[in-house]
Amino acid sequence: MTPCVRRSEVALTSPKHGSYNATALSFSLRNFTRMRDDIVIIGGGLAGSEAAWQAANRGAKVTLYEMRPKETTQAHKTGGLAELVCSNSLGSTDPLNAPGILKEEMRRLNSLIIRVADEVRVPAGSALAVDREQFSLKITQALEEHPNIRILREEITEIPTDCLCILATGPLTSDKLSQAIAQLTHTKHLYFYDAISPIVDADSINMDVVFLASRYDKGGDDYLNCPMDEATYNAFYEALLAAEKVQPKEFEKTAYFEGCIPIEVMAERGRQTMQFGPLKPVGLVNPKTGLRSYAVVQLRTENVHRSCYNLVGFQTKLTYGEQKRVFRMIPGLEQAEFLRYGSLHRNTFINSPQLLRDTLQFKARGTLFFAGQLVGVEGYTDSAAMGGLAGINAARGLAGLPLVTPPPTTAHGCLTSYITATDPRHFQPMNTNFGLFPPLATPTRDKESKRRLTGQRALEDLTAWITRFELS
Questions:
Q1: Which H or E run includes 427?
Q2: Residue 317 has pLDDT above 70, yes or no
């Protein structure tokens, strides 16, 4: 393979949305006397795994570095690639839902993450929930068996400069690499806190109390529901407010992502706040009584065997002892055995609008790409999608092809636009939502029609983009 230094003037160019132009970026590889002929990807989470898959399938040689299991993090439990450390749900698959549109776009781009998720799916209504062990196992196996991918279990503490590199180390980037990124960007890291929900043993749940149902009967009876009357809810609310919490370090500012806010922080916002969030009783009728409860706690299965359940929306920073005491106040969980307690960890991300191009390239060094939650997207699917785009563009750059950016009318495109064109003074992480999509050419007031037409346009434009640049 010819070293990429000899073809950089053609390959690494600045794209327009859904297209590209021939204007060279403000960098040149001619400063490097020797360049590796592989793409280096740092981080074996969802974004790094998807980036490796997309790049390797386009003929690029890939070296994927993952520090686990030699070096671990506060949240990971295994050395498997694409380990899910929080929920086992990748979010909605509903085509009238923005995350559902993103997933369908990823399918059309032959996403490894979505393909495996579909294979190991567990019941969760309209959500794409997976058996987390099988999910990681199958992705690890697929990458290990790919002829173009080499996996090295080593910690990288410095950002390499002799190759095309994708940084996809996620919210738990190691301290040493975080320092290297801070030096590179000439700025301090931004961060927010992400909280993990607890998991309970199915055998310890009182099935005489809970009932099976999905909200509005969507997807069948996929959730276990713990009903609360008003007195039980009020007692639980008071206990939640009074419970002991794990305190962050003094120099760290607690800035929660609204889509993953700890349950006790939600309670602090008002007595009824949880009833309009994860404890919302609307759309759920207890078949044992024929009545709607005052509040409902939902449990989602973690695996195909339904041997353990996740407390939906119960991300928490309560101490372990308090979790056991307070969450056992939930009807049906009086004797719950906790297989995993909830916990709190720091999420790291860069100020992407200030630092990145819409190709996910670092503005000051076009041979460096960022991907995943580091760029300021939220959620498993969004992170993997950004990894996929980085992998596609790195492979195109290595092959001497122009880099591309998806149309802004697509879920990939509007997410890319958000993280690279938002006011950098107020940038905060975001996941895919209809608020990011541009308006329809012909406005409609009907909410369902608007969503359907937005989704149709997104998939049509993405398909045309895939065909134009031969990305399938």
A1: none
A2: yes
